[in-house]
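sanity check this record:
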Amino acid sequence: MTTKFDTIVLGGGIVGVSVAVHLQKRGRAVALVDRKAPGNETSFGNAGLIQREGVYPYAFPRALSALLGYARNRSLDVRYHPAAMAALAPFLFRYWKNSHPTTHAAIARHYATLIEHCVDEHRTMASDAGATALIRPTGWVKVFRTDAKREEETRAAERWFSEFGVTFESLDPARLQQMEPHLDRSLRGGLRYTASDSVSDPNALVSAYARHFEQLGGRILTGDANTLRDQWKVDTQEGTIEAASVVVALGPWSDQITSKLGYRLPLAVKRGYHMHYATQADARLSHPVLDCENGYMITPMSRGIRLTTGVELGRREAPKTPTQLAAVEPIARSLFPLGSRLDDEPWMGRRPCTPDMMPVIGQAPRHRNVWFAFGHAHHGLTLGPVTGRLIAEMMTGETPFVDPAPFSAARFPGGR
């Protein structure tokens, strides 16, 4: 027997759950399908930031000196698998081209239209889901080990404020120590992005949103998205389900479905790792903290202090190689008094990325009842509820609160 719905959402991460919530609120009968419980893949392990300041998506380094440094494959913030580089080269070249300052600035003008709503949309969804206690409206902090880096980052923050109204607080060493007394006292100051929020447990937040979806009448089913067929059926543990429309929100696995539909979208992954730590004695950390010179972040989470690494370039399904975590852990211990490891092994996640640094959001160009919502890179948690609302508005004929045109799959030759 086949159970019918109005829409099947494929993918139980923050983006898929947010899409499902917004559609269900608008009267659609929605099935959310994933192979795991919501929030247990890429959405499980991140720094927990809702980045109102993230108007410029993370660019590829352009300076020759930086590229030569990364080529040695010993950098703390970026590592790569040599065996994967030939396959990744076309993507990385396009990423490098799009990171030219002029092109990057043009991308930011589009990207900022999503980013500007991220905090409000999360706060609204968290309130509806009874999860406001998981969101901390305290901002987050970049810290600097050199005056040169502090001045460089301050200039960027001033530009973001001028262009997009991103607010920040400049912290001299004394103010930083007052705010975070257990950080290394040799730091040269910091920047606090005051309009951003952070999350004490990203998995718990996604799970709360998923429970809210069920309370609205939605169904969460365990199933295999790769069984999608026949406009549109999917096999689940409770049997086959069918719907008039489908949303692909599978993060780094989205291309498995889009390629079956005939689209050749340039999707790659940036892998990353995290580990939780106890703290020594009575040490406390009140904000997420990014060590700018060394490319890792420490964040207070419900489980402990979460140390998250930068970027590892490799094949999506390649085995874990947490060398970055091993490299930055001693440095993180000098920044803040971390205690023992709390996890049995490092967690690894995969950030789904496009070469122009913008997500794919909107209707599939050649399939009237297929919708795409993936490719959010470092800002999946940040942009989940924004994307969910935008997709739902487009699908139900409302006027979108953000112009969706820049995020269409049709911007790529293989997406038309």
